[in-house]
Amino acid sequence: MTRAYIAVLPGDGIGPEVTEAAVRVLAAAAEVYGLDLECERFPFGGAALERCGAPFPEETRKAVLEADAVLLGAIGGPQWDDAPRALRPETGLLELRKALRAFANLRPARVLPGLEGHSPLRPEVARGVDVLIVRELTGGIYFGRPRGLGETEAWNTMRYTRPEVERVARVAFEAARRRRGHLTSVDKANVLEVGELWRRTVSELAQAYPGVRVEHQYVDAMAMLLVQQPTRFDVILTGNLFGDILSDLASVLPGSLGVLPSASLGEGPSLFEPVHGSAPDLAGRGIANPTGAILSAAMLLTYALDRAEAGRAVEEAVAQALAQNPTPDLGGTASTEAFTRQVLEALYTKA
Ligand code: ATP
Ligand code: MG
User: Fold this and answer.
1) Whose CA is closest to atom 17 on ligand 1?
2) What is the distance in A from the centroid of ligand 1 to the CA of 164?
3) ipTM score of complex
4) Do 172 and 272 reside in the same domain of the chain?
């Protein structure tokens, strides 16, 4: 059994509380599924600014680059809002993402059984929603050149190369293979040449994944369908700009920020973190919802360690705990600690 080494960056606000929960669940999953995991904590964000004077200290950089995966809590808080750029927690996050060379951002949005009432969608539409958005992160119009701002005009360039599309599409096909075998590729091929190349590249790669059913949608239609018929979709692959918009749209479907996980995969070790921020209003009160962090740990098992079975078991344990008694943000009375124990119990009971 090879040992997997996880660099844990608890960060600020509720970050340390939800990360602690996720690490406990990871350790339990490792025990149940026979994995040798070592989790080590490193300073990052505001916590690192206070301890080491930099948001992404050298010690932490070295650790994450040697790790098999990185688990991050959340960073930031009002005390750093007016700090110069180099002394802001957010600067550390930008440096971290750059160091890991992530090119694919994975954002699942699932409406868990019993939580349909929290979704802004009608319960009968929300029931069973379970999508994964795969967004390209390093290319497209956010980075394309030329770009510029003049007195009376401004311009940006949407550009993608075939290898850029291929590598992110491969991540999406692999995810679809592990999930329900359905991939929806989103572009604007009726108006943009980039969309044509995108569509052609995805269709060609589809030959290598005969088990995955591929569908193409225009981004405008997709925005509509995600609200009207979200259960039609499984994995949704798209570029940087459209992915930015669609992942925000999808993130409101479950109805709570606290339940959303994310993964960033790239050339270096993968990064796993909840979508929510440091929630300074809840920090230290022991009532933060650790679901997003725990589900990020489940993604770590699936995508970084290739242990999808363990990842699914964690997801199911979380679903069970949410049905039993959630944290106050979802109308329950469980503390972070009590909720985490419910997840651990469900995980051990099932095994
Ligand atoms: P950031 O600026 O870091 O992106 P934000 O300030 O926009 O973050 P969050 O800190 O993510 O937003 O959260 C906004 C509010 O949502 C919090 O103040 C909190 O009340 C609620 N919230 C966020 N995450 C959680 C959680 N895990 N459990 C319970 N409530 C949460
Ligand atoms: Mg904030």
Assistant:
1) 279
2) 33
3) 0.94
4) no
Question: What global pTM score does this model have?
Answer: 0.95
Distance of CA 3 to the CA centre of its chain: 24
Is ligand 1 within 6 A of the CB of residue 81? Answer: no
Ligand 1 in reach of 259 Cβ (< 6 A): no
Q: Residue 327: CB partners within 8 Å, gap ≥ 6?
A: 258, 287, 288, 289, 290, 291, 334, 335, 336, 339
Query: Residues within 5 Å of ion ligand 2 by Cβ?
Result: 277
Active site residue 187: no
Ordered per-residue pLDDT tens for the chain, 351 residues: 679 999 999 999 999 999 999 999 999 999 999 999 999 999 999 999 999 999 999 999 999 999 999 999 999 999 999 999 999 999 999 999 999 999 999 999 999 988 999 999 999 999 999 999 999 999 999 999 999 999 999 999 999 999 999 999 999 999 999 999 999 999 999 999 999 999 999 999 999 999 999 999 999 999 999 999 999 999 999 999 999 999 999 999 999 999 999 999 999 999 999 999 999 999 999 999 999 999 999 999 999 999 999 999 999 999 999 999 999 999 999 999 999 999 999 999 987
Preceding omega of 261 cis (within 30 degrees of 0): no
Q: How many angstroms does the Cα of residue 77 sit away from the middle of ligand 2?
A: 6
For the CA of 279, the closest atom of ligand 1 is 10
Residue 281 resides in a domain: yes
Strands 36-41 vs 3-11: parallel, antiparallel or unpaired: parallel
Domain that holds residue 294: 1-101+268-351
Confirm whether residue 86 is marked as ligand binding.
yes
Identify whether residues 112 and 251 lie together within a single domain: yes
